[in-house]
Structure formats: structure tokens, C-alpha cells
Amino acid sequence: MASTEEYDSFPAATDDPPAILFDQGSLAIVSDTRRAGRGATSGGSRASRSAATTQLATEVGSTVVARRNPFLKSITFFDPEVYYRKAREAVDDGEGGSGDGSDGAEENDKRSCDDHEADDDATFEVNDMSHWDITLRDPTAEELLGGRRGVINRLKKNKGPRLVVEDYEGLVEFSSVQSGDRLVSINKKKIKPEEYSADGAMVYMRSCLEDDGVLNVTTEDPHGQDILINVTVIKPRPAMSYEDLGLVVWNWPFLCVKEIKDDSIFQHTALKETDQIAAINDIDCQKMREKAFAKCVRELPTEITITVIRRKHRYTGSFT
Fold first, then answer.
1. Which residue in 171, 145, 173 sits closest to 160, CA to CA?
2. What is the distance between the alpha carbons of residues 213 and 187, in angstroms, rounded to a whole number?
3. What are the Low complexity biased-composition ranges (predicted)?
4. Please, which pLDDT band fits residue 250 given cuts at 50, 70 and 90?
């Protein structure tokens, strides 16, 4: 019998493809074209894809598929000025003047910042802190009590009481985050209601963006498709190419995440190496090759939403 680790993941270090990664039932979740109703709480800016997205899907030999409500959702966006300044400071502090090629790395980073400054003003507007908001509420006494009852609830880490998304606007509307979702983490730090109140968590979100130049918020919907994850990232520079993103995909045999480089903006998302990519901005990736995926990334000016399939822990129901 295979161990839990063998069941939940596959080794990324080998070039030998497995016989099969996921059963057909898993793939049917994203290939089924029946539209699931999303109701009034769906992401406002993502209520419908543009004609340009449909055209892009046609160009890469794919189609736009019906959206599914994932179990885990992630939204990441940046304050470009702070983010690139921090990147330059990291290069200066860690490698500056060492004569080991760091001068080239610093030059590349400065060029990235210059490219950002050359982008149109829409970049600054869409990343302005006044253009996003997430309102949270504390769990009710009943939710707190219910999350602590029984062995199963204690075992299933993702079923415990959490802060709840009450409302959102601006950049967050690009994502799949909905009112009623439970807050999982902020910048990959687990947020527990016994450690953060709703007000405290909202203050922490803003301090992350102000101090680090990047904010990642991950939520969960217990009623969502339980092996689907939506990862939304707002490019800090619209002109970023596939190579600039630092995300490497391959066909193994399905389109999967092979590597997330250290300086990748996807380091600040819920995406993981070995995730199977099911769709990008609702464009079906079931039969997509790396070159077509790279074209999609290049053509998407601001928002990239990647839907992935990830197996959950067989006993705890957790992704980790």
C-alpha cells in the first residue's frame, strides 16, 4: 500500500512521466461544461470573461470552460514601488560588489524596475492601496464551539473556526474570493482567531502591503470543489513575459508546475511545484503545451488566474 506522501504528490525531480496522475473523475471537474451557479457573491470583475480571452483561447487551440467554485482561493497583488525597492535592497545587502555575477543580477533588477516605471499609469492605479479592501468578521461563539468539538474536527485542521470574509472590493474582485469564505493565511502566515481579531487581521494585511510591497490572502470555502485551488496574481508590471514570472511548467504528461523560481512573483501565492494546471483565466489547459501556456501569460495584461488540481490528505482532508 502506498504511503500518504506517495499518494498525495509525485516527485518533481524525475523526467520519467507517471502512468497517470489523476483519475478521470478529477479531470471531469474542470472539463464538464455545465455552468455552476455562483450567485451574488461571485467575484465581480470575473463575472464574465472578455471576448479577447475567448479569442486567446482559440489562438492556443483551446476553449473557455465553465468556472468551478474551488475549495482554496488565493489573491496576490503588489505595491510595485515598494516591492522593487525591496528587491534591489536585498541584492545590495546580500551580493553587492562580490564579483560573482551579482552586478548582472542587480542590473537585471534595475531594468525590471525601469520597465515598471515605463508602463502606463494604469499599473499604478490598479495597484494603488485605495483600490482594494477586505472586510473580515470574527467567528461567532457557535462557530468557535463547533470547531472544537469531536475528534474529527480536531483532526481536520482546515475545519476549525476561522475569521470570515464579510465583504471585499477592488482588486480582490479579480479573484474567486467570496463573502462567507474563511480566512486561512496572510502572506503565508496562518491566521487563527485566538491570535488575531478581525480588526487585527485587517491591520496586518495593510502593514504587509506597506512594508513588503506584496499582499497574499488565502481563503477557503468548505463547500467548494475539494481538490481545486484558484490562484490569482496581479502582475506588478503588465509587460512581464513568461520568463519574467519565474514560473516553469511542463507536460508530465498533463500541464504541471515544474518549478517556482526564488524571485518569482508566484512565490507569494498558494501555487506549489507539482500542481496540475487545469485552466488559466478559464482557458482549458487539459491538452495545453508549455508554449501555448507561455503565450497566454504574455497576452494577459494584468490578472492571471490559474486553476490547479491538488490531491488532499486522505485522512485529514488538508492540502498540507
1. 145
2. 11
3. 43-54
4. very high
Give the residue extent of every domain in the chain.
4-33+41-78+226-309
Average the pLDDT over each of 6-20, 92-106, 284-298 and give the range with the smallest value.
6-20
Q: Is 310 exposed, middle or buried, given 0-12, 13-18 or 19+ CB atoms closer than 10 A?
A: buried
Architecture category of domain 4-33+41-78+226-309 in CATH:
Roll (2.30)
CA distance 315 to 293: 34
CA angle centred on 87, ends 83 and 89, rounded to 5°? 115
Q: How confident is the model at residue 2 (pLDDT cuts 50, 70, 90)?
A: very low
Strands 70-78 and 225-234: parallel
Q: Say if residue 241 is exposed, middle or buried (CB neighbours under 10 Å; 0-12, 13-18, 19+).
A: exposed
Q: Where are the alpha helices (DSSP H) in the chain?
A: 4-8, 24-31, 51-59, 80-94, 102-118, 122-127, 141-146, 151-155, 198-212, 242-245, 290-299
Cβ-based burial of 255 (10 A; exposed 0-12, middle 13-18, buried ≥19): buried
